[in-house]
Amino acid sequence: MPGIPDATWPVSEALRRSARTKLAGEGVPDGPFAAAHVASFAHEAKRWPEERFAALFSHLAAVRHLPIVLLGSASEALVNARVASLAAGAHVFDLAGKTSLPEVLGIVSLADLFVGNDSGLAHLANAAGTPTTVVFGPTDPDATRPWDGPRPDGRPVRLRVVRERVLCAPCRFTRCPLDHACMTGVSVGSVEPGLRSSPYGGAVK
Questions:
Q1: Which of 191, 189, 194, 170 is nearest to 181 (CA)?
Q2: What domains are there in the chain, each with its CATH number?
Q3: Rg, C-alpha atoms of the chain
Q4: Omega of the bond prior to 170 within 30 degrees of 0, cis?
Q5: Which of 38, 129, 193, 195 gets the most CB atoms within 10 Å of its CB?
Q6: Distance CA 91, CA 182 (A)
């Protein structure tokens, strides 16, 4: 019988210190924060609408007083900037193109939570043990979601998958030829419960 897959990624204290230094250099205040990935440079259809992310960040700022750290590549900076401009009342720090992959791992390991689209950064946050919420649309969470089975390190599973079931998904189109209902049908209210202060576990599909 096969053993439990090890999808965890231990983060050294040295990497955490480096991440704290990076955050401080970008003006992020010391203390709790939320990390997010709002873009998907190679797959436009996987993006939850920008205004929904912005409303979610405004909610996190109002209810949990969390600053938001946006991650991503330099090619995703325009998407990040648009979301940041829409997030009324939220303190948003855009690190698109400003981090190496090890720095991203360190940052997500320090975050109180991570929220994003189906992307490699969601897998990274989950592997680091950070409470992770992923919005799925045109791709199949049964095939590509982060690992939500038992963790060999004994930490609780803290993955939440949010999706709107539609007949045309999964489709794997990079750009929706229809109405993008798989993503526009996901409300802020359906994503927000996974970002509350209490721990959560297991995939919700």
A1: 170
A2: 31-195 (3.40.50.2000)
A3: 16
A4: yes
A5: 38
A6: 29
CA dihedral 67, 72, 78, 80 (to 10 degrees): -20
Identify the bridge partners of residue 70 per DSSP, sorted by sequence position: 36, 94
- The residue type of 17 is R
One pLDDT digit (tens) per residue for the chain, 205 residues: 467 788 888 899 999 999 999 999 999 999 999 999 998 766 888 899 999 999 999 999 999 999 999 999 999 999 999 999 999 999 999 999 999 999 999 999 999 999 999 999 999 999 999 999 999 988 889 888 998 888 888 888 889 999 988 887 788 788 877 788 888 889 998 898 767 644 444 444 3
Alpha-carbon gap, residue 173 to 68, rounded angstroms = 29
Give burial (CB, 10 Å; 0-12/13-18/19+) of 48.
Answer: buried
